[in-house]
Sequence to fold (166 residues):
Amino acid sequence: MECLLGLLKVKVVRGLNLAICDPLSHSSDPYVVIHLGQQKVKSSIKYKTINPEWNEELTLSITNWTLPIKIDVFDHDTFTKDDTMGDAEFSILEFVEVAKKDVAGLPDGTVMKTLHPDSDNCLAAESCIKLKEGKITQDLFLKLRNTDTGELVLHLEWVSIPGMGH
Fold:
């Protein structure tokens, strides 16, 4: 069995300017699917919007921090196959490295690391990994690929497993 390093809470905050998949209503019925290795978690469907507000927390068990987290956004269709609305991917390597550090005594709000958008990631804006209320957190603005438009806003939070180090 793989060793559990910790849990990653992925809060799917919202989508911005997602693709219009339902031309009649000029909107979409988006939902998000997050993959990590064999794990798959899914948000609820938000109807008739291209700027959905989910604010839903999905939890992944982290056993291999070298695997990227893959995200797909779909448009829910009742009678046909759901349309893809783009995808994104990000690495949690730096996030988990920071999460494993001893942060005792550091002031709340300490920025542990800043990540910048580049060709290797889907970041739409600079993203800081920081200490907030004793937890390692990160806000991500991801630009969706394989589509003309759309961004996703995510909030990550690390949950340590007691007895598993930090």
In short: The chain is about 5% helix and 45% strand. Residues 70 and 123 are 13 Å apart (CA to CA). The mean pLDDT is 93. The first strand starts at residue 6 and ends at 16.
